[in-house]
Amino acid sequence: MTRPMDLQRRRLFGGSLSVGALTLLTGCDISDHDSVQRALAAVSRWNDRVQAALFSPNRLAPTFPKAMAVKDFRYNAWYGPDKAPKLDDATYRLTLAGQIADKRPWTVAQLRALPQTTQITRHICVEGWSMIGQWSGTPLSVFLNRIGADTTAKYVGFECADGYYEGIDMPTALHPQTLMAFGLGGDILPTPHGYPFKIRIPTKLGFKNPKFVTTIYVTNQRPRGFWTDRGYNWFSGI
Amino acid sequence: MSGRRMSSGLPSGQPSAPPAARQAGLQIQKHALPARLTHWLMALAILLLIGSGWRIYNASPIFGFRFPEWATLGGDVGDALALHNDPGVASAIAWHFAAMWLLLFGYLGFVLWGVASGHFRRDFLPVGPRSFLRDFMAAATFRLAHRLGEYNAVQRVFYWGVLAAVAMMLLSGIAIWKPVQTYPLETLFGGFQDARMVHFLFMSAIVLFLVVHIALVILVPKTFVAMTLGKATSRPHTTRPHTTGARR
User: Could you say which of A71, A91, A155, B60 is the most buried, measured as most Cβ atoms within 10 Å of its Cβ?
Assistant: First the structure.
């Protein structure tokens, strides 16, 4: 599953070289200049540290009355909803990796048997739109404790069936509102929204909420992120 | 106050011009180094923030229009789409959240210096609706003298206004950037989406200020010299000669 992504990334890299050469030749747009992009990336890493310092593990994202939760939650991805992977309960396994004591894979039925909670919180997209939804699921912290994850490690990473990948800081992973969401709007999470579950984090921007999660890993090395690899800020807390 | 300003073209409290210059009717404008540094720091930051902010706005417009791509900052849209499937919003956000620090430092530096040095009290005060109306009418009928080194009531109101607008941009910007960590700051603006609206409205106010500000600098280029090199001198002039001093 990671191999096609690597190939794609290699193609992208080749593309960026030729565009970079074009920019040097024409000198058209300062914003595309490599040294400018490097400087901006350095500030973005500084902003990661500022945001980590601003993040309070005890501060809860605002919750809303049920009437404000959207029934038909907006679908959002870089591919159409018909292209969303349809994962089969019979073959689906959640794989665990990294600093985790019990790495036995989990079936959908086992995951659903975990204690669940419901939250009505607001999803905020990096583009500026926002939407309130009702999410049901298991706090990630409960699951991490259940599998004997080393919660003194710095990060938790996710790999997904649609080729997406994300990672978050441990304080956010342990935040009480960070869920493995199995349900949306009172129903089982629909396929386009990430069946069997998505990571729902109301303290992060929308793209830090991966869907179709197939692997969870615990690590001290900062996990890569799909949109972070495309220039977005890594921490992206709100 | 107005009598004192009429007696000399100098900003009150600034070092007096040499008697010879005063006799020659020279007006002198001086800008201290902290004012010039913070002015140009804020100018750079605001241009970067407007350009990148417009690109971010285009990703999810509040109103039924988008800003033309050439006026926005965030790299080539076509290239970014081909490479990243992203129309340069990532780059625009990186610019925006880098330039916000420049604006924050420039603004805090200017406000602290303005209070501590007496610049605000000396040059931006007093200001009231009557003097504003009087100078506004004079300006509208092209009878307002521009006296280098001295701010008329319209200018004073504009400078207070833009200082307030930048404060609102910083506050609403923080509410949009960190709606959870700073909650309930967003409720001050009516909610998250309303904070975006406030951010847009005060951006518009700052753009309007910039249009007028830059137009006036083009009309009186010596002000640019003073803001850059620190000092400029000029003979008194108006758009209609011989009305100098008669405006009050």
Answer: A155
Give me the domains of chain A, ranges plus CATH numbers: 61-230 (3.90.420.10)
pLDDT tens digits, A180-198: 999 999 999 999 999 999 9
Residues in chain A with CB shorter than 8 Å from the CB of B196 are 128
Test A203 with B180 for CB contact under 8 angstroms.
yes
- With an 8 Å Cβ cutoff, is B55 touching chain A? no
With an 8 Å Cβ cutoff, are A43 and B94 in contact? yes
Give the CB-side neighbour count of residue A168, counting CA atoms within 13 A. Answer: 28
Interchain CB contact of B70 with A (< 8 Å):
no
Domain span including residue B115: 2-234
> Are residues A143 and A132 in contact, defined by beta-carbon separation less than 8 angstroms?
no
Summarize pLDDT for B110-124 with one digit per residue, the tens: 999 999 999 999 888
DSSP letter, residue A74? P
- The CA-atom distances, in angstroms, between B99 and each of A54, B41, B46, B86 are 19, 10, 8, 21
Q: Could you give the number of structural domains in chain B?
A: 1
For residue B107, is it within any domain? yes
Classify residue B246: in a domain, yes or no. Answer: no
- Residue A53 or B21, more confident: A53
A29:B76 CB<8 A: yes
Domain membership of residue B244 (yes or no) is no
pLDDT tens digits for range B41-99: 999 999 999 999 999 999 999 999 999 999 999 988 888 888 888 888 999 999 999 99
Whether B233 has a pLDDT exceeding 90, the answer reads no
Residue contact B94–A231, C-beta within 8 A: yes
